[in-house]
Design a protein that fits this description.
- With about 120 residues, this protein is mainly beta.
- It is about 0% helix and about 55% strand.
- It has no helices and eleven strands.
- Strands 2, 4, 5, 6, 9, 10 and 11 form a seven-stranded mixed beta sheet that branches. Strands 1-3-8-7 form a four-stranded antiparallel beta sheet, with no helix packed on it.
- Strand 7 and strand 8 form a beta hairpin.
Amino acid sequence: QVQLVESGGGLVQAGGSLRLSCAVSGSGFRINRMGWYRQTPGKQRDLVAAITSGGSTNYADSVKGRFTISRENARNTVYLQMDSLKPEDTAVYYCHLRTGVITTYDYWGQGTQVTVSS
């Protein structure tokens, strides 16, 4: 059974930094890509950053140049380094995992709150 465990959220002042981590446990799956989404009340969950099994990355325009996604393959862990945080980055951040190649499956973490004060 695949499980995603997130950590690293919290409260930070504008201009500060946080690092989110997401560890994947389980076996018998092939990672397609991993990423981070975020959601605020009443809005849809939006992609923040993603990284493929080959190491390609993509970012939401609003975080380019401030956030960095990376992976530690040996530990099946993905990180999101968030620098120069802004109040508008405040949201619940969810780790996402897609497994498989032809048939794919999506998994989500429980979410971690990030609050940026002005």
